[in-house]
Specification:
Elements (H helix, E strand, L loop, with lengths): L2 H11 L3 H10 L4 H13 L5 H25 L1 H8 L7 H14 L3 H4 L11 H6 L4 H26 L6 H35 L1
Helix pairs in contact: 1-2, 2-3, 2-4, 3-4, 3-9, 4-5, 4-9
């Protein structure tokens, strides 16, 4: 971890719950790192596990609503130019749009667990003007288990929380396979529903 990011993380997390929420909202530091450090603070009894999950969820959802609004009012050209400042690059947008076109709005939930598209999937949702209420609900349902997972790992690692990537790697694969499976089930459901509607 670079010294600048480390110092920024220390400053944010010194704010407790609010620091976790703000850290996730601004997306300068990957959510996995912010949440795992939040778990470390829980292990020190500086904050509670439930509070960390609540504020982590709020921050994560607000961050994605922000990206949604950028997609809705700025469009793809704006994001291709400035998306790098919120860790979103052209390749992420390409994959996210392919997923959204193939699987529909339900992918907002399942794609949250897949590294390449988890942040960028909010872009096509905004561009296609997906209802904000539905977008927020699906995003929240996905952010909650993601927050719980990394806060828990941060607790388990304690002072070794910076090794979160190594610790999380074996489990991320399970998240991805579960997300792919849920996406496939959703896709099958959509096909069956469309066929019934045609009849």
């Amino acid at each position: 971890m670079s010294e600048i990011i480390h110092d920024l993380l220390m400053w944010l997390t010194d704010l407790g719950y609010w620091g976790i929420m703000i850290g996730l909202m601004i997306e300068v530091i990957p959510s996995e790192i912010v949440l795992s450090y939040g778990g470390y603070l829980v292990s020190l009894d500086k904050i509670s596990f439930v509070g960390a999950v609540i504020y982590g969820t709020i921050g994560g959802v607000i961050a994605q609503i922000f990206v949604y609004w950028i997609g809705r009012y700025g469009g793809r050209p704006f994001l291709e130019k400035y998306g790098k400042y919120i860790l979103i690059h052209k390749k992420h947008i390409d994959v996210a749009e392919q997923w959204f076109e193939r699987y529909g709005s339900g992918v907002i939930f399942t794609a949250r667990f897949i590294p390449v598209v988890r942040h960028a999937i909010s872009i096509p949702a905004g561009i296609t003007r997906m209802p904000l209420g539905r977008f927020t609900i699906l995003t929240t349902l996905a952010v909650i288990p993601w927050s719980i997972f990394f806060i828990y790992l941060g607790m388990e690692l304690g002072s070794n929380w910076e090794n979160i990537e190594e610790m999380a790697a074996p489990h991320i694969g399970k998240f991805i396979w579960a997300a792919v499976g849920l996406t496939a089930l959703y896709f099958i459901f959509m096909i069956i529903r469309n066929r019934r509607n045609k009849r």
